[in-house]
Fold each of these.
Amino acid sequence: MCQKLSLKGWIRVSPRGTIYGQIQGEKNSVDEMALWLRLQGSPGARIDSCQFKNWKVIDSCDFRNFSVRY
């Protein structure tokens, strides 16, 4: 989904199953991704709660692509 929306950043799954990360890109794409994460998520995911923190507007992306960190 991040590639489809041309988003940049990263995610990491904690041992407890919580997802952490940063998403950067055009505002409408970030908003669409947040809605997708809140309501659907990746195939096989179970979403009990979804919280987004530290929203801010930036002039340029800090990341060149999107990755999953381990």
Note: The longest strand covers residues 8-13.
Amino acid sequence: MLPWRKVSEAWFRHAWGHPQLQVRGWCVSVKTCLTVLLCLSEIDVDHRLWIGICQFICATSLFLQWWLANPTMFLVRSMANFAKAFLFLHLSVCGRTAIFDPAACELAGWQDERQPFRIINACFILHWILVAISLLLQFLLPLKGVTVDVGHEQLWYRARLRATAVPMHLTLAYLKPKLRGTPFERSHLEPVLNGLNAAMVCIIVWSLDRQWRTSGVRDALDALESDAASEEAQPSEEER
């Protein structure tokens, strides 16, 4: 079992997890802020509120895993991503309607100008399910694919998988202005936020790939030696 520590052991000490976890924590935090901005602008609050909560949970778990190296955070993010898949399922089938009101479901969106958006949301369902499964596999098989030079194989898979969200966000940013003048016109803010989300995903993809390349056995041993050396260099309580 890989070493990790409890919250009570963490205060005032350096982080135990890979630094790229912190990078992704900040990226997901930015994505959470963008979702909050949509909610404040009263844009699809029924879905964006819950998506924002899922993003906040993912960001928090990334920071905790960076600080504590606790593998349980894989399960937390996996469940949050399964929840996002459900939310996009409702978006794809019913559109921007109340989640808990079946009578409000608008199936007509599959036959009008909204059809491309329904298809993209359907792609997001598969995207988030696969991301959730990848996180679950990394928890269940913590050393799968780890070699002297590279880290867990699911980091490699997840980097490529997350990259598929970039063209989806950019396609949404391109299509939304085309709805102007229709009953389904979107806010000018939405394409901008889709572009910013695509940029954040690009950083997340780079971070996952970077972690895969720098979390092999050799890098882990170097990190442990560096931690041991830094602890030995610190004065003990008696010396103080």
Note: The longest helix spans residues 115-140.
Amino acid sequence: MNGAQLGEFPDDSEQLGPYVSGLRRRALQASELSAVRTFSDQFLLKFLRARDIDVELSLKLLLNYQRWRRESPEISTCLSPSSVLGLLNTTYHTVLPQRDRTGSRWIPKDWSAFQVFRVSLMTSEIISMEKETQRQGLKAIFDLQGWSLGHALQINPSLARKISSVLSDSFPLKVRGIHLVNEPMFFRPVFAMIRPFLPDKIRQRIHMHGADFHDTLSDFFSPSVLPPEYGGEGPGIERACQDWTNQLLQSEMLLQQIASHPTGDIALTPEDSLISEERGE
């Protein structure tokens, strides 16, 4: 049985027990986590499923995640949806009902790149708790319509490195694909900054669709997943954005607990599961 198949078992299965125990033992032996007394099974399983139940790779991911949180407090310690409600209300960001993520507008004079990245991190923390997303991963669509020099100037090498770390080796999510649409010439220098920090595996999963995305997104997403604005048959983008904004606001306390916890490992209840297990691809 391979790692992906093991990941299909429920959290409390006997088959997963030895891997959870092994990862916990290795993590608590790490010098940089010497102050940590234990990790919960739920928390460790996020990292195990993100690396197909490979304990060594999961340990590396867990250590990178802890290191990233310590080195990026300006992002990781402020996960309050209400603090960026104005940004969320611009239909900037959503999680689609079929588990694929898409983004829309960001006005750089109103919102900094750090605030935009913080919204993405809030969403990533929430969806990484959902078991099926742990198993299947995510695909993201970034609509760069209206991107200008003002956007490009906000992405410096330091932020580019932080973004690439989350995409590649510092967050417990499988990134299955990154799809860019309406990308303008101003985006090219930004991508050139981020690209060197990305492993080949992630580079190969980045797809630039340009303005003719209606013809090419369907090669990667079924029509039922995409909003009509992107050539699909799902809910409209404004409705999807408002629904996800409401979900984030309902998660305010949960996200603040994650942000303030030394390791991000907090106790979850069934009510904390915000994404339906019954969604499609």
Note: Confidence is low (pLDDT under 50) at residues 102-109, 275-281.
